[in-house]
From TrEMBL:
Single Gene Ontology BP annotation: spliceosomal complex assembly
Domain Pre-mRNA-splicing factor Syf1/CRNKL1-like C-terminal HAT-repeats residues, every copy: 82-362, 385-537
GO cellular component: post-mRNA release spliceosomal complex; precatalytic spliceosome; Prp19 complex; U2-type catalytic step 2 spliceosome
Coiled-coil region list: 529-556
Pfam families the record matches: HAT_Syf1_CNRKL1_C
SMART domains in the cross-refs: HAT
Name the UniProt record assigns to this protein: Crooked neck pre-mRNA splicing factor 1
Organism classification: Eukaryota, Metazoa, Chordata, Craniata, Vertebrata
Gene3D superfamilies: Tetratricopeptide repeat domain (1.25.40.10)
Lineage: superkingdom: Eukaryota
Keywords of this entry: Coiled coil, mRNA processing, mRNA splicing, Nucleus, Repeat
Species of the source: Cyprinus carpio carpio
Localization, UniProt: Nucleus
Family: Belongs to the crooked-neck family.
């Protein structure tokens, strides 16, 4: 034992001298010493005596003593986080959660980047069912240390165990924004798959675009029955890696996938494509698989696929050279519609409609708008996706500059689509918007036709009223409106409509008058013929000053036909006297630059009142009568000469029969001045 001297120096103990330095007969190894020590329990210290606390005062003294010890240890070395953790865990064991929380917070002030400290802190809150406190800790931890995946794993696991699926998904989405390692993405994908959210599980390959992830993505789509999507994933992978970073394993997986789908021609094309581009020394596995495939399924060439591929390439080149060549887009779309899946067709349609005409003139939009029409019809009839069809129509209608021009066919097709979907309210809303934004004759006609088919006659009346407000000079609208009222049996309304129509100053047209007359004639009443005749008379008076003489002639011819069927002889003669005379005239033609371009002939109509008011016309009529008389006199004289010649021929024949000499008869005829024609 060491002892201190009076001078404060230490005495060195004496070392025992070994007298016999020869080796012992029995050698003892270190392993044997340790075994004997364990068997005899030489190193086990007896446990400290158990302290029994009998009252609160002793408990407080115990707590004070332990806390003082912990605080002393922390004071000696604040950076030893294990002291903080032991301290907090001891407080937790006493159910002093608030004190333990305070200790953890003090420890985080010392070292906020210590992962174990955050984990122990959050685990304490979770064990004590303090869910909101635990969420708060996890949020702080992933905010300060977003690259520590353990925090994210435990946070998402806690939320999922609590049944907070939306919250768990939100945490995953926050995590994915940091683009973590692949395993994190797989955890997210497995989470979404557990809750049948397949569409949200397709994002891994965009962050980690390695070949193995593309293959996993395709197998994922195949596993869930999305064959077209799985094929598209492989195609996207091939496009992504291109020819510079081409991978043998990718093409092998692609070919095996197509082989499972019995697409043998696709398999052959894939193998050939890959073998043409991958160096031979790197394509041993590829060549081996291709050989096995050919042995199983034979060596048949996909001629049609080759042709289609070639045509697709040609169309791609055409639309790249001129994106506004809409005819090329139409041909391309017909090809892909007959050969590829819906997603590929949609992609081509989206590319096509993205090429908006550069000029906002209707003539430049006429071909372009049919891309939208074909797109909508494809979605409705082929894909049978009414919601997407509706989106296509709405996007098209939003794109058209309605203030400058519009396309009535788009509005009408949209309305008819909504009718087929049994959504009458949307159809009426769309057509009503069309009439409000850009009223057109075709829109009104289509909307009225729709309501007529639905037998909504009150709506038809309102639409006709709006139509007439928009275009009061359209005689067809007035006639159709009156015909509707006639069909509905409301003759008074029909008569009132005709009266309003003929009262329009801009509507001085014979069609309305003729329809009005036919309407009155169709009514079963005693005075229907008189009413019809009265309308024709009023129409004739109204159109006497009409510049378009053909229109008045049309009216008079209709009146003539009416009188021929229902009128008396006096009425017929009266109408015949009103008919004009057709004369041929000539007029000068002037070119656009003002120069003389010659003369042209045309027909004019001269009505009786026009002839009475113009003296020249009277003189012309008298000249025509004189010429006609002269022609009649000439015709009479010619007839007399012909009669004389016939008589002479008869005399010649009689003389010839009696004398039987031609010369005598000939001299007789010459002396009588008969013409050679008679001879």
């Amino acid at each position: 034992i060491m002892a201190s001297t009076a001078a404060g120096k230490q005495r060195i103990p004496k070392v025992a001298k070994v007298k016999n330095k020869a080796p012992a007969e029995v050698q003892i190894t270190a392993e044997q010493l340790l075994r004997e020590a364990k068997e005899r329990e030489l190193e086990l210290l007896p446990p400290p005596p158990k302290q029994k606390i009998t009252d609160a005062e002793e408990l407080n003294d115990y707590k004070l003593k332990k806390r003082k010890g912990f605080e002393d240890n922390i004071r000696k070395n604040r950076t030893v986080i294990s002291n903080w953790i032991k301290y907090a865990q001891w407080e937790e064991s006493l159910k002093e959660v608030q004190r333990a929380r305070s200790i953890y917070e003090r420890a985080l002030d010392v070292d906020h980047r210590n992962i174990t400290l955050w984990l122990k802190y959050a685990e304490m809150e979770m064990k004590n069912r303090q869910v909101n406190h635990a969420r708060n800790i996890w949020d702080r931890a992933i905010t300060i240390l977003p690259r520590v995946n353990q925090f994210w794993y435990k946070y998402t696991y806690m939320e999922e165990m609590l049944g907070n699926i939306a919250g768990c998904r939100q945490v995953f989405e926050r995590w994915m924004e940091w683009e973590p390692e692949e395993q994190a993405w797989h955890s997210y994908i497995n989470f979404e798959l557990r809750y049948k959210e397949v569409d949200k599980s397709r994002t891994l390959v965009m962050v980690h675009p390695e070949v193995k992830n593309w293959i996993k993505y395709a197998h994922f789509e195949e596993k869930h029955g999305y064959i077209a999507l799985a094929r598209k994933v492989f195609e996207r992978a091939v496009e992504f890696f291109g020819e510079e970073h081409i991978s043998e394993s990718l093409y092998v997986a692609f070919a095996r996938f197509e082989e499972k789908q019995k697409e043998f021609e696709r398999v052959r094309v894939i193998y050939k494509y890959a073998l043409d581009r991958i160096p031979k020394q790197q394509a041993q596995e590829l060549f081996k698989n291709y050989t096995v495939f050919e042995k199983r399924f034979g060596d048949r060439r996909g001629i049609e696929d080759v042709i289609v591929s070639k045509r697709r390439f040609q169309y791609e080149e055409e639309v790249k050279a001129n994106p506004h060549n809409y005819d090329a887009w139409f041909d391309y779309l017909r090809l892909v519609e007959s050969d590829t899946d819906a997603d590929t067709v949609r992609e081509v349609y989206e590319r096509a409609i993205a090429n908006t005409p550069p000029i906002q003139e209707k003539r430049h939009w006429r071909r372009y708008i049919y891309l939208w029409i074909n797109y909508a019809l494809y979605e409705e009839l082929e894909v049978k996706d009414p919601e997407r069809t509706r989106q296509v129509y709405q996007a098209c209608l939003e794109l058209i500059p309605h203030k400058k021009f519009t396309f009535a066919k788009i509005w009408l097709l949209y309305g008819q689509f909504e009718i087929r979907q049994k959504n009458l309210q949307n159809a009426r809303r769309g057509l009503g918007t069309a009439i409000g934004k850009c009223p057109k004759n075709k829109l009104f006609k289509g909307y009225i036709e729709l309501e007529l088919q639905l037998r909504e006659f009150d709506r038809c009346r309102k639409l006709y009223e709006k139509y007439l407000e928009f275009s009061p000079e359209n005689c067809t609208t007035w006639i159709k409106f009156a015909e509707l009222e006639t069909i509905l049996g409301d003759t008074e309304r029909a008569r009132a409509i005709f009266e309003l129509a003929i009262g329009q100053p801009r509507l001085d047209m014979p069609e309305v008058w003729i329809s009005y007359g036919q309407f009155e004639l169709s009514i079963d009443s005693d005075d229907r013929i008189q009413r019809c005749r009265q309308i024709y008379e009023e129409a004739n008076k109204s159109m006497q000053n009409c510049e378009e003489k053909e229109e008045r002639l049309m009216l008079l011819e209709s009146w003539r036909d009416f009188e021929d069927e229902f009128g008396s002889l006096a009425n017929k003669e009266r109408v015949w006297k009103l008919l004009p005379e057709k004369v041929k005239k000539r007029r000068k033609i002037t070119a656009e630059d003002g120069s003389d371009a010659g003369w042209e002939e045309y027909y004019d109509y001269i009505f009786p009142e026009d002839a009475a008011n113009q003296p020249n016309l009277k003189l012309l009529a008298m000249a025509k009568m004189w010429k006609k008389q002269q022609q009649q006199e000439d015709e009479e004289e010619q007839e007399e000469e012909e009669e004389e010649e016939e008589e002479g021929a008869q005399v010649f024949y009689i003389l010839f029969k009696k004398t039987n000499t031609t010369s005598v008869c000939f001299n007789l005829f010459i002396s009588c001045n008969y013409s050679p024609k008679v001879l």
